Amino acid sequence: MTTLPLPLNFHERAKVLGSSTLYEASHLPCAVDSAIRPVWDGAFIAAPAYPLECSPGDNLALHLAMERVPRGSVLVVGTGSFIAGYWGEVLTVAAEAAGVVGLVIDGGVRDIAAMKKRQFPVFARGISVKGTVKVSAPSVGQPFNFNGAFVAQGDLVVADEDGVIILPKADAARTLAEGEARANKEALMMQALTEGRSTLELMNLTEWRTRA
C-alpha cells in the first residue's frame, strides 16, 4: 500500500483554515450532512478519502478495506444512515496498523472511550452498542454520493467541529489558496471591528440602516 500525495502542507493549512472557511472558498456542493459529528471533542481530519459502502447492519466492507486502503487515507463509509456499531476498538487498532488516519461514517460506532484514548478521529451519525454481521460488501474503493457530497478515492476530506467537507482532488489546491485569501480578508475585517467600525459598513450594507 502506497501513501497518496497531498497538496503542499495540506493537513496544516486545512487545520488553520477549518472546514467552514474551506467550504465557502470552494464554491462547490461539498458539505456533508451536518448530523455527522465528531464522537470526541477536538477530533480533526485532513486527508485523502478512501470510499466504501456497507449494507445496513453489515461491516464486511470495512474489513476488506483494511487490506486495500492506501496509507494516509481517511475511510469515508456509507451505510444508508443505519445506526449500529460498525466500528469499534478492534477496527481502530487495525486501522492504525494499516496507516488509516480517520473515519467518517454516516452510521454508528461504539467503544468511544478507546477512540478518544488513542486520539483516533471519528465522525459519525450516531453511537450504538449493537454489533453487525459480515455477509456483504456493496463497494470498496468505488465513488458514490456520500450524504450530499460526491466522494472518490483521493478526494480530500476536512472534518472538524464545524462539519465535514469533501473537496474534489482537482479543486483542492485552488480551494486552499482561496481559503487563505479569505482568511486574510477576514482578519483585516476583525481588526477594523476592534477599531470601532461596523459590519454594515465593512460589508457595504449601510443602505439597510434606513430600510430595516
Automatic annotation (TrEMBL):
UniProt xrefs under PANTHER family: 4-HYDROXY-4-METHYL-2-OXOGLUTARATE ALDOLASE 3-RELATED (PTHR33254:SF4)
Gene Ontology biological-process entries: methylation
Key word Nucleotide-binding present: no
Gene3D superfamilies: Ribonuclease E inhibitor RraA/RraA-like (3.50.30.40)
Record's keyword terms, sorted: Lyase, Metal-binding, Methyltransferase, Transferase
CDD domains: RraA_family (cd16841)
Gene Ontology molecular functions: methyltransferase activity
Protein name: Putative 4-hydroxy-4-methyl-2-oxoglutarate aldolase
Cofactor(s) in the UniProt record: a divalent metal cation
Entries under InterPro entries matching the protein: RraA/RraA-like (IPR005493), RraA/RraA-like_sf (IPR036704)
